[in-house]
């Protein structure tokens, strides 16, 4: 089976979050299921610098008003199709916004262009290749399904994966006339969404298959509380909605082989983690003692519960614990964490930004990782933590609830506990979870049993890939 994946980012070329990890890891996992994946991605500077020699397989004199071409290229094991549209993608800043963090004002045009190119590849393919199915990721690529629905590739199976329903690609009604869609596409069963234009909504209503990144999240988004205005649509298409947990790329995230940590180790040699703990303590300028060391690797946003963490720092420090923070996001929260590091020198350290090698060291050297998200579609951070013996302290939400077993009395006694799970995601419950974690850390035998249980858990892509493959085959085979 030939599958075209359309994604706005892909690891290791360009990454802002878990979407990139999934787009980068799923092709190799699906190859084991007999599905060959080619991924269409935008030609950002980081992508163009990595692909090297590339072949032009399609040209546009004017794609949404700009010259563009599609390049066939390889990057490691990734088989890529790159939309080389310099007017849209060759910019300083991030994939979605400028250096100041403001969204690009023409994002509607940039990602309509990506989706249009995806639909064109579905229709015509390239010499010697045409997909059997198209898989679009999140709002930036979801319009691929809409363009296919209203074009010659309407009968080709199309899947859309929701990585985070909070990001929907909503724009004004005035852009509709520039999208190149027929008039009948403007309506409640098309791209119109509460009087505006909805990219994710258009993809979801056009898709033959909808997936999201955990079973719990697939249920949560059908409720008004977490449906973000799309719960009615999702309930109406519930027979097409499936939750499949993300996996971990075990070639990259493995403490036994990781070149980015101070010392490698296994579940049988947990004492070797000490070298990573010492290196992490030095990096953040923290006191060298045996107190539990909490870490945070996160976007610093309300969704991630980081405002609650900022308020809980005094409680954490009063318990004798330490905290190392890596992340960026809301400027007010960045300031709050920087101020906490100044206020609690030696107990709190903050680094604003993202640093991939440091994130590995934090998983390898931290005792526990705080993930108090108000909602969390899947989460990869807790999966990395489990694999590295860093105890997850998580809210009972989405994929966090699906992957972490709470250290209640029965689970600890059975040796099944892998972390601390709390609910609801509010300041009081978070403070209680931090207190529980500090107390558990004092029981060395129970703590190490939790570490080993988490490290034994299998969150590789193999199981998830089998579920994707089963759903893809069910769509393709009837048309074969």
UniProtKB/TrEMBL annotation:
<dbReference type="InterPro" id="IPR013534">
    <property type="entry name" value="Starch_synth_cat_dom"/>
</dbReference>
<dbReference type="GO" id="GO:0009011">
    <property type="term" value="F:alpha-1,4-glucan glucosyltransferase (ADP-glucose donor) activity"/>
</dbReference>
<comment type="pathway">
    <text>Glycan biosynthesis; glycogen biosynthesis.</text>
</comment>
<dbReference type="InterPro" id="IPR001296">
    <property type="entry name" value="Glyco_trans_1"/>
</dbReference>
<protein>
    <recommendedName>
        <fullName>Glycogen synthase</fullName>
        <ecNumber>2.4.1.21</ecNumber>
    </recommendedName>
</protein>
<dbReference type="GO" id="GO:0005829">
    <property type="term" value="C:cytosol"/>
</dbReference>
<feature type="binding site">
    <location>
        <position position="15"/>
    </location>
    <ligand>
        <name>ADP-alpha-D-glucose</name>
    </ligand>
</feature>
<dbReference type="GO" id="GO:0005978">
    <property type="term" value="P:glycogen biosynthetic process"/>
</dbReference>
<comment type="function">
    <text>Synthesizes alpha-1,4-glucan chains using ADP-glucose.</text>
</comment>
<dbReference type="Pfam" id="PF00534">
    <property type="entry name" value="Glycos_transf_1"/>
</dbReference>
<dbReference type="InterPro" id="IPR011835">
    <property type="entry name" value="GS/SS"/>
</dbReference>
<keyword id="KW-0320">Glycogen biosynthesis</keyword>
<comment type="similarity">
    <text>Belongs to the glycosyltransferase 1 family. Bacterial/plant glycogen synthase subfamily.</text>
</comment>
<dbReference type="Pfam" id="PF08323">
    <property type="entry name" value="Glyco_transf_5"/>
</dbReference>
<keyword id="KW-0328">Glycosyltransferase</keyword>
<dbReference type="GO" id="GO:0004373">
    <property type="term" value="F:alpha-1,4-glucan glucosyltransferase (UDP-glucose donor) activity"/>
</dbReference>
<feature type="domain" description="Starch synthase catalytic">
    <location>
        <begin position="3"/>
        <end position="235"/>
    </location>
</feature>
<keyword id="KW-0808">Transferase</keyword>
<feature type="domain" description="Glycosyl transferase family 1">
    <location>
        <begin position="288"/>
        <end position="439"/>
    </location>
</feature>
């Amino acid at each position: 089976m030939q599958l075209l994946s359309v994604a706005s980012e892909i690891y290791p070329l360009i990454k802002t979050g878990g979407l990139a990890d999934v787009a980068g890891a799923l092709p190799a996992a699906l190859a084991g299921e007999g599905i060959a994946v080619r991924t269409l991605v935008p030609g950002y500077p980081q992508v163009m610098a990595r692909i090297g020699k590339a072949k032009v397989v399609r040209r546009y004199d004017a794609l949404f008003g700009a010259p563009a071409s599609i390049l066939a290229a390889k990057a490691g094991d990734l088989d890529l199709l790159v939309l080389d549209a310099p007017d849209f993608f060759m910019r300083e800043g991030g994939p979605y916004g400028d250096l100041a963090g403001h969204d690009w004002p023409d994002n509607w045009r940039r990602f309509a262009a990506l989706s249009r190119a995806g639909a064109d590849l579905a229709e015509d393919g390239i010499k010697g290749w045409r997909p059997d199915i198209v898989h679009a990721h999140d709002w930036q690529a979801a319009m691929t399904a809409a363009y296919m629905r209203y074009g010659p590739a309407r009968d080709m199976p199309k899947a859309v994966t929701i990585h985070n329903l909070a990001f929907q690609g909503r724009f004004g009604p005035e852009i509709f006339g520039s999208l190149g869609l027929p008039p009948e596409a403007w309506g409640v069963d098309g791209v119109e969404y509460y009087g505006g234009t909805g990219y994710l909504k258009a993809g979801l209503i056009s898709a033959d298959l909808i997936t999201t990144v955990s079973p719990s999240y697939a249920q949560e988004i059908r409720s008004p509380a977490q449906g973000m205005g799309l719960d009615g649509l999702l309930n109406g298409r519930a027979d097409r909605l499936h939750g499949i947990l993300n996996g971990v790329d075990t070639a990259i995230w493995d403490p036994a082989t990781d070149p980015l940590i101070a010392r490698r180790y296994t579940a049988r040699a947990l004492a070797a983690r000490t070298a990573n703990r010492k290196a992490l303590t030095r990096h953040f300028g923290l006191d060298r003692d045996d107190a539990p060391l909490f870490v945070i690797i996160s976007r610093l946003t309300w969704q991630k519960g980081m405002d609650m963490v900022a308020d809980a720092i005094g409680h954490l420090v009063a318990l004798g614990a330490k905290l190392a923070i890596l992340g960026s996001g809301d400027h007010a929260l960045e300031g709050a964490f920087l101020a906490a590091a100044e206020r609690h020198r030696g107990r709190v350290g903050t680094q604003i930004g993202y640093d991939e090698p440091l994130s590995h060291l934090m998983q390898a050297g931290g005792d526990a990782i705080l993930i108090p998200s108000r909602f969390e579609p899947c989460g990869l951070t807790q999966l990395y933590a489990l694999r590295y013996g860093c105890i997850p302290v998580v809210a009972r939400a989405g994929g966090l609830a699906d992957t972490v077993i709470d250290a209640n009395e029965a689970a600890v006694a059975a040796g099944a506990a892998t972390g601390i799970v709390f609910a609801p995601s509010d300041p009081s419950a978070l403070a209680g979870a931090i207190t529980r974690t500090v107390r558990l850390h004092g029981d060395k035998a129970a703590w190490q049993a939790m570490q080993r249980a988490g490290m034994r858990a299998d969150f590789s892509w193999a199981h998830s890939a089998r579920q994707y493959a089963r759903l893809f085959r069910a769509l393709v085979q009837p048309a074969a």
